[in-house]
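Fold this sequence, please.
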Amino acid sequence: MSGVGLSILYLGAERGTSLDRANALRRLGHRVEHVDLRKFLPRTVWVYPIIHRLGGHIFGPWILHSLPAALQRPHYDLCYVDGGELVTPRVIGLLRNYATKIINYSIDDPLGNRDGAKFKAYRHSVADYDLCVVMRSMNISEATCLGAKHVMRVYMSSDEVAHAPRVLTQEERDHWKADVLFLGTWFPERGPFLLELVDHGIPLTIRGANWHKAPEWPRLRSYWKGGPLQGDDYAKAIQCTKVNLGLLSKGNRDLHTTRSMEIPALGGLLCAERTTEHLDLYTEGKEALFWSGVEECAAACRSVLTNEEFRLRIAAAGQTRSVTNGNTNENVMRAIVEQVRVQS
């Protein structure tokens, strides 16, 4: 594990922030083989409902059967498991034949209750990893109680490439422009909040998955402009929006989210729930806007929608602070690898 340029087996989704982290490891000079374990699962629409209701451990036999033939190397310096809902203790036992160290990074809250049985395999496997990297302070003690050897807490991160501001044409600005945008998945507490914003007269745009499930859908439907965005479209939507809302997932015990990093990195104005972690990340009223309820959020939106100079000043200061904070994938991945090396 000494020196640079480790050979890394990366087990995670080949899209979204998981792909961003794999690419960050590549940019740091590591040799990364990326395998998405989901490609080994049965081809049926019932797979993901089963994972959520019963647990990903049910598909352990599929992983054990298919993974060895998919690996390109006989040995890796490090196996990096991103998420881990499909990785059981037996799968980790198999990986010991191929990797010197095995670590887990979970951007979700696998020790909380929001996702039902989805992370049952993770909870059973915590003690088998050489390092568990978590996003929430309470996860440290929770993982330790489950027998974790080492636990490292980091903040979520933006990506140096995926969340670098784009050069936009006027046509793109016109296409993606919005006054106030919430870009994210529906959760039960989000519908009532956004509907109240609408009732306060806020010019809202919603983009994201599952909003048709919201009880408030009949009234919110006209504000919904499409499903999840990734890549350039995600970046352009944030850049072309005057106020980007940062809503937390209560079930996920969030005090910040990836949006907390990505929006300022792209030069967007972050308007998010006031939490201890948001206040640590940005100076309120100067680098971001924070609120503790619908009325305060609506007032914050109006304060910048009616004062362009004020809005642009906060957005620029937030972007500068995001650089200073250094919560980016390359920095976080570098710290994780260094922590593994220290433990070797």
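The mean pLDDT is 96. The first strand starts at residue 7 and ends at 11.
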